[in-house]
Specification:
The structure is a single chain. It is built from no helices and seven strands. 0% of the residues lie in helices and 35% in strands.
Length: 110
Amino acid sequence: GDDVDMNDWLGKQKAGWMFGSNGTLCHDTQQDNGPYSNRYGTAFRDQAQLTAKLDMNKRELGFSINGTDYGVAFTNLPGKVYPAVSCRTPGVIRISFGDKLWALIDDIRH
C-alpha cells in the first residue's frame, strides 16, 4: 500500500489492484497499459453503478456492477490498502464508505 506511484497506472504496480471498464483485472503487470487478459465480470460504461467489496478479515476484494455480484477478484491483499478511483473522461464519481458519501465531479469539457 505504501509503495504506490500515484503518477503511474495502478494496474501495473505491485501495490495496485485494478478493475477496468473493459471487464478485466490487472495487478502487478509491470506494463504501462494492460495486458487485459484476466477477464472478470463484464464491461461497463456510462451510468454503471459499481460496488467494491473489501473484506480485510479475509484480505479479499470483489466487485459488483449494477447489483450483480461477480465474487472475489483479488485475494491475499496486504494488511493495509488505500482505495483509489479514476475516471478517464469527464463524469461523476460518487464514493461511499459506510454512511459517508463523497461526490467527485469532473466537468472539464474537451
